[in-house]
Amino acid sequence: MTADEIRGTIHGTAPVPLSVLDLVTVGAGRTATDALRTSVDLAKLTESRGFHRYWVAEHHSMPGVASSSPAVILAHLAAHTDRIRLGSGGVMLPNHAPLVIAEQFGTLEAMAPGRVDLGLGRAPGTDGATAAALRRSERLNEGADDFPEQLVELTRFLDDDFPDGHPYRRIHAVPGPIQSTSPGGVQSPHRPPVWLLGSSGFSARLAATLGLPFAFAHHFSAQNTVPALDLYRESFRPSAVLKEPYALIGVSALATDDEKEARRQVLAASLNMVRLRTGRPGLVPTPEEAEAYDFSPMERDFITSWNANVIHGSVDEVRAGLDDLQKRTGADELMLTSHAHSAELRLRSYELIADAYGLPAV
Asked: Which residues, at least 6 apart from 188, have a Cβ–Cβ distance to it below 8 Å?
């Protein structure tokens, strides 16, 4: 693993490398199968236009988000792509045994050598009751509190370097480095780079201390973006992985040919978020349903605040918003996520943004 497997390449006139975060959203009137087919189409489109990486995020018990199993989805995407980096944005480490994650991502690395990222988060990606069901434990803070220790354990499984005397010294994540030391064994030189994900200062400081790349969730924690990135850069310690800090931010962005349609789609996504935040998660509603919905004053205040950080409208508006955001934050990479009921408009958004920056059509 080298810094070259982490740092992206700038194409066209984009200020930094552009990437994709896919939540595999399911709109009203559509199925999870439809959503996964859209993900394949989107991965193929963005690969052909020079986007650097494509990540999927772990969520649970949300009808409108079909990404509960990132490793399974990534395996599917690996079969339909050739060059774009694939990864998790992220796998929620406290929900899983570190050995299981090491095995899953070792398998993905064997499927797509040299283009797999392992992004890790410490939140459950769901509500407390679902987290308890996933972890088979009522101690919901246990996993988050133990995150640094779990990260060390996972890294040792990935590198197969538990010290002598450790109870896991004879346990090996396969596929993995142990295969290269077996008689006649030949092992890939690649190992999935570990990224830490966060929406506050905890993971920023931990990533800096360990010299790891950092991904910040600007798309739902915009008020913490600059403080977290400043903390990461100020605290960064060079490592064998990175000599200098490298931070990407997740950005909600939707460009359309008709800016009014962008507003309609964003309103539908906003209603979906209102329902999620009030304990009523569902499928992403249609724009027509959102337009007919009677928002309370409190709900309107919420969506006004929420949409202040969604870059949407015409392609010129979106490009200007992305350029400004990158300048304000100094992000080394922008990872774009689009929220809309229409799969066609989501695909079109990435195409418009690629055109706006002159990204190559490969």
From this structure: 109, 110, 113, 114
- In this structure, what token pair is assigned to residue 275? 């329902």
Residue whose tokens read 């980096």: 85
pLDDT tens across 199-218, in order? 989 999 999 999 999 999 99
Cβ proximity of 56 and 64 under 8 Å:
no
Pairing of strands 116-121, 194-198: parallel
Reported as a pLDDT band with limits 50, 70 and 90, residue 190 is confident
Residue 348's CB: how many other CB atoms inside 10 A? 20
How far is it, in rounded angstroms, from Cα 161 to Cα 154? 11
Nearest to 107 by CA among 175, 54, 181: 175
Phi, psi of 289 (to 5 degrees): -65, -40
As a whole number of angstroms, the distance between CA 266 and CA 290 comes to 9
Per-residue confidence (pLDDT) for residue 215, from 0 to 100: 98
What's at 214, amino acid-wise? F
* Residue 101 DSSP class: H
Q: Give 324-362 pLDDT, tens digit per residue.
A: 999 999 999 999 999 999 999 999 999 999 999 999 987
Between β-strands 247-255 and 194-198, what pairing exists: parallel, antiparallel or unpaired?
unpaired
Number of other CB atoms surrounding residue 287 within 10 Å: 20
Q: Which tokens hold the place of 33? A: 């199968």
Size of the chain in residues? 362
State the amino acid at position 159 in one-letter form.
D
Residue 18 and residue 353 in contact, taking contact as beta carbons nearer than 8 Å? yes
Cα–Cα distance measured from residue 115 to residue 89, given in angstroms and rounded to the nearest whole number: 14
pLDDT value at 2 more than 60: no
What pLDDT is attached to residue 135?
72
